[in-house]
Amino acid sequence: MKKFEDLLGKTLVNIENKDNDELIFTLNNGEQYRLYHDHDCCEQVVIAEIIGDLKDLIRTPITLAEEIIHEQNINPDGIKIPEYQDDSFAWTFYKLATISGYVTIRWYGESNGYYSVSVDWGKCP
Length: 125
Hints:
Elements (H helix, E strand, L loop, with lengths): L11 E7 L3 E6 L4 E5 L6 E9 L12 E7 L17 E11 L2 E11 L8 E4 L2
Antiparallel strand pairs: 1-2, 2-3, 3-8, 4-7, 5-6, 6-7
């Protein structure tokens, strides 16, 4: 899987949240993938909120897998978020759904402008 959207149609057997820094997704074929950020100096990227129940994504094929990135202080509904005024920041939303439920994973990244605030998706080593 090269993109997060490649989860579409796959079946998860587990999702592990590691201190809101990383999520490990285990597929029914045993493969593991992760959402994470390689931390560096002068930046912070964390899971700000998980809306919904991750358990709703287990043992049922994924019907929605979508990544949305906002690199300004406006949320997806167009509402300004004034309390976030860092030099460089991004909101990254991961939307997942099955017939059992819907989950949005909201990441927030901030830096001094010289470091990446992106969230990475990749196969576990």
